[in-house]
Design a protein that fits this description.
alpha/beta; UDP-N-acetylmuramoyl-L-alanine:D-glutamate ligase; Protein-Tyrosine Phosphatase, Chain A; nine-stranded mixed beta sheet; seven-stranded mixed beta sheet; 25 strands
Length: about 475
C-alpha cells in the first residue's frame, strides 16, 4: 500500500525532517532486500542496529528512513521520520495500514503446524478470495508487521501466522493485526525454557482468542484437550475440528498412502467428503481439517476445497521427500522439531512399507527447559520401537535420544552421536545405502539441512 510521508509520520507519531514529497512504495528493515522507493526502518535488536545502515539505504535509493537518532539528516529525495522507537513505529504503521484496508484476517497459532496450516488455509481461501498470507514464517514482532505492510488494496482476505516464545507476545501481535478469526492447532511442550508449565503455554496461545475482533470466530482442535478447553472461556463463535474426537469437522477413515501422502474422509453436517492430501503424517491431516473448516465456513464449494487440498505441496524442509538415484529416499523435515512432532514423524516412518532399512536422524530439540532430557529419551524409545537400523543423535541433548533408544532395546551398533550437523552428514553419507528411508528432523538451531547438503554432495538426487 503506497503512502504519503505525511500519512506515515502521523501514523507512527513521528516528526518529519525533509520536504516530505513523494510516496513510499514498500517497507523494509534490511538494506539487503531494500528496493528503490522503500521506507527503511532502522530497528534495533540485541545484536544489530539499523542506524548503521542508513548510508546503504540512501545508496539503494530508499524513499526515506524511520529513525530514533537525532544525528541523521534528510537529503534531497530521502526523507527522515524521527520516532522514539522504530520497532513501535513499524508496528503502528502496520496497524494503520491494516485498518485502512479493513479486510478480514485469520490468525493462526499453535505449538506445531502453524506454517503448514497457514499455507493450507491460504490455498483453500484463494479459491474464492485474493489472499494476503504471511511470508514463510514471518510471525514475530518484526515479521508480522512487514506482512501487513505488503497489503494490496485488491486483496480481500488475510491469513497471518502468529508465533511466540513468551507470555504476552501473541497478545501484542493480535493488537497489531486485529484478526477477526483465529485458528489454534495444538499446545505442546515447546518453549518450556520460558514457561513454568504447559498450561502456561496454553494460556499464551489463548491470547489470540482474546485479541479477536468482530465477528470473532475461533477454529479449535478438539483432539487437544487444552485447546478444546479454550472454548469454555471464549464468548464468540466456536468451530471445532479434529481427527480423534467428535467435532464440527472431523476426519475419519484415514488411509496411509506412504510417501504419496494420506487419504481421509471429512464428516460435516451428516455429510461425508473424501480428500487426498499429498503431505506426510496424521498430524498434517489435522492441519488440513483446520483449513477445510475455514474454507467451508467462508462458503467455498466442497469441490474447490477438495481441489485445493489435493494440490498442497510441502514447504522446503517441512516433510519434503527427496529421492536419490542410488535407491534411497530422504524425508527432509529439518526446519524445526518438538517432542510431539518428532514422535509423530518417527511413527510415520515406522509404518512405511517397502524399505529394507529405516534411519532416524534426530537433532537436539531446543528450549525444552528442565524436562529436556526425558523428552529426548522418550523420542529415542519411540525410535527404537520402529526397529530403526540406525539412530543418529545430533548435538547436545540429542545424546538422550540415544539413551532412550538403548533403554528400549537398541544396541550400540544402531546408535551414533554427532556433535553437529556437518559431522552427522558425513556419518550418514558413509552409512546410507540402497533401500533405505531416512528421516531428518531437529530444531532450527541445529541446522540439520547440512545433512541433506552432505548427501547431495556425495550422491545424486532426483530433482522434480
Amino acid at each position: 500500500m503506497n503512502l504519503l510521508f505525511d500519512e506515515v509520520t502521523k501514523a507512527v507519531n513521528g516528526t518529519l525532517a525533509g520536504r516530505g514529497d513523494g510516496e513510499v512504495h514498500g517497507y523494509s528493515i534490511d538494506t539487503r532486500t531494500l528496493n528503490p522507493g522503500d521506507l527503511f526502518f532502522a530497528v534495533k535488536g540485541p545484536r544489530f542496529d539499523g542506524h548503521g545502515f542508513i548510508q546503504q539505504a540512501i545508496e539503494k535509493k530508499a524513499a526515506g528512513a524511520v529513525v530514533e537518532s537525532e544525528g541523521i539528516a534528510s537529503s534531497p529525495g530521502f526523507n527522515v521520520v524521527r520516532v522514539s522507537s522504530t520497532v513501535e513505529a513499524l508496528q503502528n504503521l502496520a496497524r494503520f495500514v491494516r485498518r485502512r484496508w479493513g479486510g478480514p484476517i485469520v490468525g493462526v497459532t499453535g505449538s506445531a503446524g502453524k506454517t503448514t496450516t497457514k499455507e493450507m488455509i491460504a490455498a483453500v481461501l484463494s479459491r474464492k478470495f485474493k489472499v494476503l498470507r504471511s511470508i514463510g514464517n514471518f510471525n514475530n514482532e518484526f515479521g508480522l508487521p512487514l506482512c501487513l505492510l505488503r497489503i494490496d488494496r485488491s486483496q480481500t482476505m488475510g491469513v497471518l501466522e502468529m508465533g511466540m516464545s513468551a507470555k504476552g507476545e501473541i497478545r501484542a501481535l493480535a493488537a497489531i493485526a486485529e484478526p477477526n478469526e483465529g485458528v489454534i492447532t495444538n499446545v505442546n511442550p515447546v518453549h518450556l525454557e520460558f514457561f513454568d508449565s504447559i498450561e502456561g503455554i496454553a494460556e499464551a496461545k489463548a491470547e489470540l482468542l482474546a485479541g479477536l475482533v468482530e465477528p470473532r470466530i475461533a477454529y479449535l482442535n478438539n483432539d487437544d484437550s487444552r485447546v478444546r478447553a479454550m472454548a469454555g472461556k471464549f464468548s464468540g463463535k466456536v468451530v471445532s475440528y479434529g481427527v480423534e474426537s467428535a467435532a464440527t469437522f472431523r476426519a475419519h477413515q484415514v488411509r496411509d498412502l506412504g510417501l504419496d501422502g494420506t487419504a481421509f474422509t471429512i464428516r460435516h453436517a451428516e455429510r461425508d467428503t473424501d480428500f487426498v492430501l499429498p503431505l506426510l503424517g496424521r498430524h498434517n491431516v489435522a492441519n488440513a481439517v483446520a483449513a477445510i473448516a475455514v474454507g467451508i465456513s467462508h462458503e467455498i464449494p466442497w469441490s474447490d476445497v477438495r481441489a485445493a487440498i489435493a494440490e498442497i505441496r510441502p514447504e522446503k524442509k517441512r516433510g519434503e521427500v527427496v529421492r536419490f538415484h542410488e535407491g534411497f529416499d530422504v524425508i527432509d523435515d529439518s526446519y524445526n522439531s518438538n517432542p510431539k512432532a518428532l514422535t509423530e514423524m518417527i511413527r510415520f516412518v515406522g509404518k512405511l512399507e517397502g524399505y529394507k532399512r529405516k534411519i532416524i536422524v534426530a537433532g537436539e530439540m531446543l528450549e525444552l527447559g528442565p524436562s529436556a532430557a526425558e523428552l529426548h529419551r522418550a523420542c529415542g524409545r519411540e525410535a527404537a520401537r520402529t526397529g530403526a537400523a540406525l539412530i543418529v543423535g545430533v548435538q547436545g541433548e540429542a545424546r538422550s535420544v540415544l539413551e532412550g533408544a538403548r533403554e528400549a532395546g537398541a544396541n550400540d551398533e544402531q546408535l551414533k552421536f554427532a556433535s553437529d550437523s556437518v559431522e552427522a552428514g558425513e556419518l550418514l553419507a558413509r552409512n546410507v545405502r540402497s533401500g533405505d528411508v531416512v528421516l531428518i528432523k531437529g530444531s532450527r538451531g541445529v541446522k540439520l539441512e547440512q545433512v541433506l547438503i552432505a548427501l547431495r554432495q556425495t550422491f545424486s538426487s532426483v530433482e522434480a
